[in-house]
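2024-03-11 09:14:02 INFO worker-7 job=invfold-0412 stage=load source=structure_tokens
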């Protein structure tokens, strides 16, 4: 059976193409449960499931095989939550071994640098199994300053821990699925983000594809930035089948396209699938700055990208100083509960009623004896749903002030108070930040009208750039192709940097 390979450069509508194929098969009377739609990340799988459910008026239960590969294996094996290694189990194992595990993965930065020794060994063991190589072979190629005897002791202990407690991790599920004599009976198999699959995941796809009439493998090797985490890019590059290239980008303007192509030209032809795609009609703009302080963040939507997280610290501090609300890796610069308390307090001052639950949240930011009377902070005897106005609160529930929020909510720290005031004076909508800060790896799949790319990189990344340049070229290709209108490049402030094509 010939596989159909769909190459989707940035902004060419790959997900829409795959959903159009799904629609064609449904119209040809293929049952929903006979269609497998697999994605590498939970985010992509959930997006496809939600869009398909809405578009085709099907329940998510009917689209039973719209999943990640791990989720499919979990479902098919009949596993339950209690069967799977959790953060609690990992912490317990780390404590037993005397090697603390914090349960964090470094996917957003493309490195395990900075994690605990236990996390690094856990990561190495998992990558070895994903790549289907021995732990020792993986250890030899990893830049870990940990003796092999210690790594071997740790990995042996992990296997024993799981075996004694009858637990499986997500990689175990892939191996168990391959040992199973059965697999889902499908008429259609669609695999998205295929450039990020590991060796063991490719074997699961091959098993699922056996006897399937229609197989579609979609991805873009130029955006394959997870090789450090075990992605088998070479399998995708060498994959045989009928190739379709989605040639028109609806996102990338011409000037940005030229820079992106310049970066790709650094990758040897034998290491990538050759493909030609065209930008949209708009020219777009490319600006170069000596410092991020020369950027004008006052209007528009912004995505600020750096290869390494610590580089974002400088722009984060700058945004705080000048008064802009932002989100860093999807976390708001001001806690949502504080924003809600401020908004609800101002509603009260306008003689509006709010629920007692919201009043309690406001009281949290008031000092006893100054903003609220002692013993009244939790509104004793009042149900959460009861609606109250400012007069009732003063008369019956201990409220001692009606001043503006930055005086009434006196437990807000001075620095944070001044920051919020500065943001509001600028007219910032504090509930929906226009500015997002992210590492390149965490931003994959995102886009914005204005994209800022820092060219500074860490010493470790600089070493990677010169020892294995393809991965870093792909990372910065992903960065610049998040741009819908304007690309802003910040020149380096150190001697270690990525040099874009300008």
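2024-03-11 09:14:09 INFO worker-7 stage=emit residues=502
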């Amino acid at each position: 059976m010939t596989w159909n390979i769909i190459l989707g450069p940035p902004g060419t509508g790959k997900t829409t193409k795959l959903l159009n194929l799904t629609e064609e098969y449904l119209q040809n009377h293929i049952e929903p449960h006979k269609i497998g739609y697999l994605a590498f990340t939970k985010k992509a799988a959930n997006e496809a499931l939600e869009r398909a459910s809405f578009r085709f008026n099907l329940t998510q239960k009917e689209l039973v095989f719209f999943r990640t590969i791990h989720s499919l294996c979990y479902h098919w094996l009949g596993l339950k939550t209690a069967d799977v290694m959790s953060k609690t189990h990992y912490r317990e194992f780390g404590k037993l071994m005397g090697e603390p595990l914090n349960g964090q993965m470094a996917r957003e930065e493309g490195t395990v640098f900075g994690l605990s020794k236990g996390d690094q060994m856990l990561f190495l063991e998992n990558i070895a199994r994903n790549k289907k190589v021995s732990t020792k072979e993986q250890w030899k190629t990893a830049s870990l300053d940990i003796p092999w005897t210690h790594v071997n002791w740790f990995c042996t202990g992990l296997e024993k821990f799981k075996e004694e407690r009858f637990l499986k991790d997500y990689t175990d599920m892939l191996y168990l699925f391959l040992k199973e004599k059965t697999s889902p009976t499908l008429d259609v198999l669609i695999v998205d983000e295929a450039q990020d699959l590991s060796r063991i995941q490719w074997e699961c796809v091959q098993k699922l594809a056996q006897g399937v009439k229609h197989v579609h493998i979609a991805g873009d090797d130029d955006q394959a930035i997870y090789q450090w985490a075990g992605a088998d890019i070479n399998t995708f590059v060498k994959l045989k089948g009928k190739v379709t290239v989605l040639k028109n980008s609806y996102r990338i303007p011409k000037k940005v396209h030229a820079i992106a192509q310049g970066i790709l030209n650094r990758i040897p032809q034998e290491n990538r699938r050759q493909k030609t795609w065209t930008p949209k009609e708009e020219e777009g703009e490319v600006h170069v700055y000596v410092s991020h302080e020369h950027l004008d963040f006052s209007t528009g939507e912004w995505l600020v990208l750096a290869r390494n997280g610590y580089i974002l610290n400088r722009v984060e501090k700058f945004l705080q100083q000048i008064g802009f609300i932002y989100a860093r890796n999807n976390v708001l610069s001001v806690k949502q509960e504080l924003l809600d308390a401020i908004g609800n307090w101002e509603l009260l001052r306008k003689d509006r009623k709010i629920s007692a639950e919201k009043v309690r949240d406001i009281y949290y930011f008031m000092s006893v004896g100054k903003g609220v009377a002692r013993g009244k902070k939790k509104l004793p005897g009042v149900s959460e749903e009861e609606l109250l106005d400012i007069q009732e609160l003063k008369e019956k529930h201990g409220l001692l002030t009606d001043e503006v929020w930055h005086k009434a909510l006196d437990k807000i720290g001075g620095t944070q108070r001044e920051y919020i005031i500065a943001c509001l004076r600028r007219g910032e909508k504090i509930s929906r930040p226009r500015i997002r800060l992210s590492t390149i790896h965490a931003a994959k799949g995102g886009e914005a009208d204005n994209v800022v790319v820092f060219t500074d990189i860490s010493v470790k990344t600089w070493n990677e750039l010169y020892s294995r340049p393809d991965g870093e070229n792909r990372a910065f290709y992903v960065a610049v192709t998040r741009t819908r209108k304007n690309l802003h490049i910040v020149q380096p402030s150190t001697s270690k940097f990525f040099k874009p094509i300008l």
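2024-03-11 09:14:09 INFO worker-7 stage=report msg="Residues 106-110 have pLDDT under 50 and may be disordered."
2024-03-11 09:14:10 INFO worker-7 job finished
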